[in-house]
Amino acid sequence: MSHPVKSEIYMFGFRGFPGVQGGIETHAENLAPQLAQLGHDVTVCFRSPYVDAKCGKGWKGVRLLRLWTVRNTYFEALLHSLVCALVAGVYRPQIVHVHGIGPALVTPLLRLLGLRVVVTHHGEDYNREKWGWAARTVLKTGEALGMRFANKRIVISRTIEKLVAAKYGKSCDVIPNGVALPEIPAKTDKIAELGLEPSRYILSVGRLVPEKRQLDLVRAFVAAKLEGWKLVIVGRIDHQNRYADALATEAASNDNVIMAGFHSGESLQQLYAHSGLFVLPSSHEGLPLALLEALSYGVPVLVSDIPSNLEVIDHPAHIFRLGNIDDLKSKMSALADARLETAERETMRRYNIRRYDWTDIATRTSAAYAELIGAGQTDAVFRPTAARGRAKLANTAWSEFWRSFQETRHHMP
């Protein structure tokens, strides 16, 4: 295999890392150091509200750049992306790698600045239940501009690849999320602090937002009346919302439901490793990292039947119909009664690591960079120097916004 072209990579579109909640955050936390190990000069941009000013300037060979934004559900990503784009215009990296369709809104600006742009599409964020029509319009516009104007597009699942081909007629590199093979912790002190016994609790990990549908899980668990079992919901809210309040209220009404808050490191490892069942009831995912992490510990899983989950899990006994509390209850009860032997768990662990190996993912991402750089300056970088070229770009961007606005308004209740 040929050696990767070493290049300067400038990356943004996530809150920060390490230990910051979120799928894209976990993706970047694993990918960036792997790219640095391959010899790339990697700079990542963090959002100031989520990372302490004392975070330092480097981590695992990655240069850290903490840039300002407000902490606001609707404006923080857009403002931070704009700041990142302007800094990139000064910094002049060989590759700007944007993560997520919201931050991809600045792709035309990056191209106008004469930069090569890679956009990774992590999922249809406009389908998240928390967004109103205005936010959905912006996200759909970001998707359109990112997919139309990026020099190269990466998607994390075959489902998203098909979506981009159908909507924009563009080809993509399919490079999934990854997971490392963890050591199985022997200790149980962290779960004991939560009043848990090994293999006698159901685990759910994710942000407390409507599309994660933890309320479905709480209601199914209460209805199942699993003797001796508890339900543990790991996650926290980034911004106050009514869904999280409703979830906390229902959870508080049952002593066997534990709202554990955010966990990372050893405590999260123990929670995964010693759980009896992991459940992902989401209505929206890209390629769910929490599910891949559960599989990396050899834990039995139960998932909703959305396309992204079905790319990972295909056994009917481990799939329930989205939003169907009765189906979730019955499948959960059946899996709670089942037990996997150590050898079966180890086989599952090894199989999924081969499918979602971070080293392979970084190598494939590096190859995508090399292909773009190898295309040459003329082919890789869009430079609308003439007034007509700039006007065409602005007109296309406005057309995409207006199309997204009309589409979103049409589908809103």
Automatic annotation (TrEMBL):
MF GO annotations: hexosyltransferase activity
Record's keyword terms, sorted: Transferase
Q: Which domain of life is it from?
A: Bacteria
Every Glycosyltransferase subfamily 4-like N-terminal domain range? 22-179
Task: Supply the Pfam families for this chain.
Answer: Glyco_transf_4, Glycos_transf_1
List, alphabetically, the InterPro entries matched.
Glyco_trans_1, Glyco_trans_4-like_N, Glycosyltransferase_grp1
The segment(s) forming the Glycosyl transferase family domain are 191-348
What protein is this chain from?
Group 1 glycosyl transferase
Q: Say which species the protein is native to.
A: Pseudorhodoplanes sinuspersici
Higher taxonomy: Bacteria, Pseudomonadati, Pseudomonadota, Alphaproteobacteria, Hyphomicrobiales
